[in-house]
Amino acid sequence: MLDQDVASAIIEAVDRSFDRQLRFTQDFVRIPSLRGQEHTVQDFMASAMAERDLSVDQWRIDVDDIKHLPGFAPVTISYEHSFNVVGTYRPATRKGRSLIFNGHVDVVPTGDAARWTTPPFEPRIDGHWMYGRGAGDMKSGLAATLFAFDAVRAAGFQPTAPIHFQSVVEEECTGNGTLACLQRGYKADCAFVPEPLQPKLLRAEIGLIWFRVHVAGDPQHASGFTSVGANAIEKALALWPHIKALEDLWNARKSDHPVYKNHPHPIRFNIGEITGGEWTSSVPSTATLHVRCSVLPGWSLAEACAEIEACVRNAALTDPYLSNNPPRIEYHGHMAEGYVLENGAAQEAVLADSHRMVFGTALEEEVTSAATDARFFGLYQGTPAIVYGPICESAHGFDERVDLNSLRAVTKTMALFLADWCGIERAKA
Ligand code: ZN
Which of 111, 146, 207, 416 has the most CB atoms within 10 Å of its CB? Predict the structure, then answer.
């Protein structure tokens, strides 16, 4: 556990640079890093790391490098602009335990931008909130990793173990960004992912599957004067209640899950997008449901997929047209197992101490119906992964915002965690 004077000096250093941290976070949010457009924001992160004398590794993700690895998710877009950046601190003397800080720069679409109070990529501070797409999820947390490191050094110390700052893409859709960091050989004794799931220890997260249900219709004149055809959009919509019924079926299985049995509703099936049709006066020839669903930790993804496929197949059998023209299922993103943090007693103890020094209260735990990239470290690298971050509201919604009081406090916890976990020594003048 850190000496109280050392902890106080680090905490004060976070306070001193907090205005600068906020300006940096606003500049970060101002860069609209939607999927497939993350290259400029990664240049921004690479220079922030270079300014801190970290050795910077910036590379484009190559599907061929990772497609054979566990945890890989199918991709249907080009990775032309999909770069990861890892900044590494290598200590002069090494005695402590190494650390990975990991966060994602990709943000989800804004929805109708006109319905935001102010434009989503013009971050605004109002009271103790910062508004903007990505302000909460999760640019504030990722920026905080660098400022936590700054604070330790500004207080006159240097860490005595390697630290990798991973700025990744693709968290919101595949996780292939973090997977590419594993493939590249980055490994440490602990991973820390400051997702905005509150300043609590995340004990468990669900897994995710993205799938599309493609329906092929029979296009005809909409008047039906030749024949009524088969309306692909109507056929696709008729499938949805059958698919949605899996949500209740799967949630019922939580009762024998050791971690999720008390969670009110861990599984969700969400149509995120519907595409289809060609012309108002034509019977549509295509329609696609784009669905995200979740699975509990420990479930087999292959079995879950088989169940989804059987459900769609059986639903199609209730319709004469679809019986003869069965829908096609495509997996186009997340294929993620759930994750429960285990074997992390040492990491958890340091987090609990750090949290208590900042908040004055015991660290609480939570279990979420969302997913993070933490699973990669825990499941495929044997590295316990801590998820702990600021308070965010309206993630993926309008007026996404991060609570700046929690951000300040979480930055302090992270700085203390870094110092305690990695070890520190007085920097030579
Ligand atoms: Zn996130």
Answer: 416
Q: Report the alpha-carbon distance of residue 372 to residue 109 in Å, rounded.
A: 18
- Cα separation, 35 vs 272, in Å, equals 15
The CATH number corresponding to 4-205+338-426 among 1.10.357.10, 3.30.300.20, 3.90.550.10, 3.40.630.10 equals: 3.40.630.10
Distance CA 322, CA 184 (A): 45
Report pTM.
Answer: 0.96
- Cα 277 to ligand 1 centroid, rounded to whole Å: 33
CA of 404 to the centre of ligand 1 (A): 17
104 close to 170: Cβ distance less than 8 angstroms: yes
Domain limits of the chain?
A: 4-205+338-426, 209-336
CA–CA dist 420, 409 (Å, integer): 16
Six-digit token pair at 88?
A: 């590494």
pLDDT tens, 256-312? 999 999 999 999 999 999 999 999 999 999 999 999 999 999 999 999 999 999 999
CA of 223 to the centre of ligand 1 (A): 47
Is 380 in contact with 176 (CB distance < 8 Å)? Answer: no
Token pair, residue 194, equals 């400051």
The alpha carbon torsion through 359, 364, 367, 370 (nearest 10 deg) reads: 0
Q: What is the pLDDT of residues 42-88, one digit of tens each?
A: 999 999 999 999 999 999 999 999 999 999 999 999 999 999 999 99
Across the beta sheet with 328-336, what order do the strands follow?
269-276, 286-295, 207-216, 328-336
Residue 369 Cα to ligand 1 midpoint, Å, equals 13
| Nearest by Cα to 79 from 62, 57, 58, 91 | 62
Distance (angstroms) between ligand 1 centre and the Cα of 388 equals 12
CATH architecture designation of domain 209-336: 2-Layer Sandwich (3.30)
Q: What angle in degrees, to the nearest 10, is found between the helix axes of 140-154 and 18-29?
A: 150
Measured in Å, residue 397 CA sits from the centre of ligand 1 at 13
> What spacing in Å lies between the alpha carbon of 65 and ligand 1's midpoint?
24
